[in-house]
Amino acid sequence: MAGSHGVNGGRVLEWIDKAAYACAVGWSGTYCVTAYVGHIHFTRPIPSGHMVEVRSRIAMTGRSSMHIVNEVLSADPREGVFTRACDCLVIFVAKDTKTGKAQPVPTFEPRTEEELRVHDAAMSRIELRRAIETEMDKQTYDGPSEAPRMITRFLAKPMDVNWGGKVHGGTAMEWIDEAASACTMEWSGENTVAVYAGGIRFYRPIQIGDLIEVDARLLRTDARSMQVVVHVRSGDPRSGRNALENAIHATITYVGVDLDGVPLPARPFVPRTTEDIRLAEHALTLRDLRAEYAPKPLIKPLIGRRS
User: Fold this and answer.
1) Which of 140, 213, 239, 261 is 20 to 30 A removed from 124 (C-alpha atoms)?
2) What pLDDT is stored for residue 147 in this prediction?
3) Same domain, yes or no, for 60 and 87?
4) 174, 13 in Cβ contact below 8 A?
5) For residue 130, what are the contacts with CB-CB under 8 A and spacing of at least 6?
6) What does pTM read for this prediction?
7) Which residues on neighbouring strands pair with residue 67, listed in sequence order?
8) Which helix (H) or strand (E) holds 278?
9) Which of 98, 117, 138 marks a domain boundary?
10) Can you give the residue range of the structural domain that contains 11?
11) Distance from C-alpha of 189 to C-alpha of 177, rounded to nearest angstrom
12) Which residues, in sequence order, are bridge partners of residue 220?
């Protein structure tokens, strides 16, 4: 994970996005864009040198959307025993390649007991996602603040391109993890790892050559965790940074760890400005909503298997 001796969380999300994209395109038969990545559980770090397997499968479909469940497993090649490192839900929307508008997709009809279970689990997350989006829409981030913050700016490079000529969603998620990791490491003075991401929402595509601004801001600390909000903004660099528009919004939870990966107490952040206090309460509300709606698990417990 980011900041520890292994693969960073952003790179893991990039792998997931590529595998889920292949699953979505295979089902829809057309170009697709990432709309949402959520319920991301980072179970453990993936050590460098491990064999990695990414599994993606359709959970349910809407008119033009596909809800895809993803798992990342890894194993020491000397032992060959795969265990889960991360799981999440990714939603793609199918696009007409000529008009760029949403395109209907074939309906997925679950038949097996496992397919029905996963479908029900995906359905149980819809109302929670709407409640979270409503809560997020109430927030503003432009008032006086003393919160720890990390802002990076750069140009989107040709190597960041996806199959549709825009910036790859997985690449953008790696940007998010890098900025949030730097923010939490600077605040805590420790290596930090991502343990959970409640949702990454994609509002608009990012063009190659755009000026990118990744803005990571600490919202709240608890006994061990640090909750961070990240905004990715983009636009024509000739128009200047003040013309950048929101492209992606994410909330991620990190913990500090020692050299052995043991979680450490978080350095407390005490909000004092009106906006910082409100956003700290907002972070707590998001957590309470997840507890209130209690969605069904997408993934069954996994017993380690050999390759």
Assistant:
1) 140
2) 98
3) yes
4) yes
5) none
6) 0.90
7) 60, 91
8) helix 274-293
9) 138
10) 6-138
11) 17
12) 227
